[in-house]
Each structure stands twice: as C-alpha cells, then as structure tokens.
Amino acid sequence: IPDSLLFKNNELWKASAVASLGMIHLWDTDSGFAKLDKYLHSNDTNVVAGTLLGIGIVSYGVKKDYDLAHALISEYSTGATSITRIGGILGLGIAYAGSQKDELKSHFSITMSNSQTPFEELVFSSISLDWCLLVPAMKRLQSQSYLS
C-alpha cells in the first residue's frame, strides 16, 4: 500500500487498509510478514492495530515449527493502548481459530478475569477465545450427530 494512500485515511480506515494486506497474502506468511513488518513499527496506533489483525489473517491455519504470529501479536495484545490490544486480541483469535492452544486459553482467561479490563476488550477476548475453541467442538458434535 503506498504510504500516501494509507495516511489519507482516518483512524479505523487505516487499520482496515493495513489489515487487508493479510488477506492479500493469506497463508503466505513469508511475504505477508515482510509486507506487514514496516507497519508494525508505526507511531500510529490504528496502523499497528491493523498490522496485528493482518498478521492474524495471514497466519490463519498455517502450522510451522516456529510460531512467529504468536510471538509478534502476544506482545501487543497486552500493550499500552486499547486499539492495539484489540488488534492483538482479534489477530490471535483469527490466527489460531480452531487450534485449541492451551497458551491462548490461559492468555484470554487472564484478560477476561481481570476486573480492570475494559468492556470492549472483554468482548473481543471472549470472541477470540470462542474462535479458538468452538470450531473443533462443533466438528465433534457434527460427527457425533452423524453417527447417532
């Protein structure tokens, strides 16, 4: 995305524009991370939030020996600003949808059990946790109903 085009947009439009790079590079983590990396270091929190979401999108369903998406996104999902925390929370939820990763269960549980967590972050944490847990549970239920 040309910077001149990106920075013409306002607030959440910036996040959407950067996150769309994740969809363009879906499942191609090497080129996707390379394109998104420059936006991860932006001073604009909306751009960083979109980058985290884009990293989650590009990583969806990708299984590699190293877990770069988790390493990059986790740091920001507990960060300083609400918009980057939400971007990180949703990025993790999308990247690991259906994975049932124990570390994500505990990560989201900690966020949701903290009485100081803002409502929006509670909502997005519960949605992301559902994405991580619900898909395999639904598949089990479907297979059981076919067997009955």
Structure description:
The protein is mostly helical and 148 residues long. It has one domain (3-147). Helices cover 74% and strands 0% of the residues. The protein has helices spanning 3-6, 11-24, 29-40, 45-59, 68-77, 82-95, 102-113, 119-147. The protein starts with a helix and ends with a helix. The mean pLDDT is 83.
Put simply, the count of helices is 8
Secondary structure class reads mainly alpha
Percent in strands:
under 5%
The rounded distance between the terminal residues' Cα atoms is 52 Å
Order of helices and strands, N to C?
HHHHHHHH
Task: Estimate the mean pLDDT confidence.
Answer: 83
Q: How can the largest sheet be summarized?
A: none
Number of strands: 0
Radius of gyration: 16 Å
GO biological process, one term: proteasome-mediated ubiquitin-dependent protein catabolic process
Keywords: Repeat
Protein name: RPN1 N-terminal domain-containing protein
Pfam families: PC_rep
What is the secondary structure topology, with strand pairs?
Layout: H1 3-6, H2 11-24, H3 29-40, H4 45-59, H5 68-77, H6 82-95, H7 102-113, H8 119-147
Keywords: Repeat
InterPro entries: ARM-like, Proteasome/cyclosome_rpt
Organism: Aegilops tauschii subsp. strangulata (Goatgrass)
What keywords describe this structure?
148 residues, mainly alpha, globular, ARM-like, RPN1 N-terminal domain-containing protein, repeat, Proteasome/cyclosome_rpt
Summarize the structure.
With 148 residues, this protein is mainly alpha-helical.
